[in-house]
């Protein structure tokens, strides 16, 4: 998961005024993790585990035509290292329905099982390119909320779990009108590359479940921080 330069600029501008105090973060139990895709051809899963990481989120699919070629390798490597793991779907809202993409995701690595080691799938909502219809993939705010609802409900119907939603504060406000339609169902994975904290929480979520705090992680991919103790992470996995 990579953010655009627009988000990077926004993060810098907001850092001083909107960041949560570091002291507040240090008082909370947290768990280290990371996320990866085919862009990381090799990953030191065991090194990550030995350094304290306990979870990884792995790209599985994109739209309804793309399966990440490294998904199985990453998933098996994470499992062997003892990491809690799960898949994520890179959304293409302008190309097909939310239901179609959720169905494709579940069929190609994004499902869930109650083995205590599998996270619910994650819906990755990011900025579209110009060829994809621009920042909001050519959808209005209402249409985007409807698209996400379609995905979320379909995923839940197929797995019994609500998917996590990955986004930035800026994208969520811009493309959904800061919708609060998902804050009691889907855990929030909030991206903000900063050492000062996750910043403002969009959509009425009371907190972020996972904070993607950096696009560089020592053992591969992006750095994530779970907002809670290991027992809470395991609860998220078990449902």
Give a description of the structure.
The protein has 239 residues and is an alpha/beta fold. The protein is built from eight helices and nine strands. The protein has an eight-stranded mixed barrel with strand order 1-2-4-5-6-7-8-9, surrounded by four helices. Helix 3 (45-50) links the parallel strand 1 (31-36) and strand 2 (53-62). The chain is globular and about 45 Å long.
List the helices and strands in order: HHEHEEHEHEHEHEEEH
Q: Based on CA inertia axes, which overall geometry fits?
A: globular
Total E-strand runs: 9
**Biggest β-sheet description:** 8 strands, mixed, barrel
Task: Name the average pLDDT.
Answer: 91
Structural class: alpha/beta
Taking all Cα atoms into account, the compactness measure Rg is 16 Å
Q: Which range best describes the helical content: under 10%, 10-25%, 25-40%, 40-55%, 55-70% or over 70%?
A: 25-40%
- Tally of individual helices: 8
Sequence stretches where pLDDT stays below 50 over 5 or more residues: 4-26
N-to-C span: 25 Å
Strand line-up of the largest beta sheet: 1-2-4-5-6-7-8-9
β-strand amount = 15-25%
List the helices and strands and how they pair.
Layout: H1 5-18, H2 22-26, E1 31-36, H3 45-50, E2 53-62, E3 66-67, H4 71-81, E4 84-90, H5 98-110, E5 122-124, H6 141-159, E6 164-167, H7 169-176, E7 188-191, E8 210-214, E9 222-226, H8 230-238
Primary descriptors:
239 residues; alpha/beta; 8 helices; 19% strand
How would you sum up this structure in a few lines?
With 239 residues, this protein is an alpha/beta fold. It has helices at 5-18, 22-26, 45-50, 71-81, 98-110, 141-159, 169-176, 230-238; strands at residues 31-36, 53-62, 66-67, 84-90, 122-124, 164-167, 188-191, 210-214, 222-226. α7 (169-176) links the parallel β6 and β7.
């Amino acid at each position: 998961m990579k953010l655009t330069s627009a988000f990077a600029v926004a993060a810098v501008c907001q850092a001083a005024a909107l960041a949560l105090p570091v002291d507040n973060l240090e008082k909370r139990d947290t768990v280290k993790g990371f996320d990866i895709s085919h862009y990381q051809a090799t990953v030191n899963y065991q090194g990550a585990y030995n350094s304290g990481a306990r979870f990884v989120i792995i790209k599985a699919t994109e739209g309804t035509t793309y399966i990440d070629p490294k998904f199985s390798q990453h998933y098996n490597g994470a499992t062997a290292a003892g990491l809690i793991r799960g898949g994520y779907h890179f959304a293409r809202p302008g190309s097909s329905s939310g239901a179609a993409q959720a169905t494709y995701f579940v069929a190609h690595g994004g499902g869930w099982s109650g083995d205590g080691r599998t996270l619910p799938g994650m819906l990755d909502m990011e900025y579209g390119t110009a060829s994809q219809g621009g920042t909001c993939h050519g959808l209005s705010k209402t249409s985007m909320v409807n698209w996400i609802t379609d995905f979320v409900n379909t995923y839940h119907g197929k797995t019994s779990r609500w998917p996590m939603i990955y986004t930035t504060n800026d994208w969520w406000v811009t493309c959904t009108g800061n919708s609060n339609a998902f804050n009691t169902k889907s855990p929030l994975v909030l991206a903000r590359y900063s050492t000062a904290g996750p910043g403002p929480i969009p959509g009425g979520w009371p907190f972020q479940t996972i904070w993607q705090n950096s696009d560089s992680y020592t053992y591969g991919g992006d750095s994530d921080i779970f907002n809670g103790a290991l027992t809470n992470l395991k609860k998220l996995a078990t449902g």
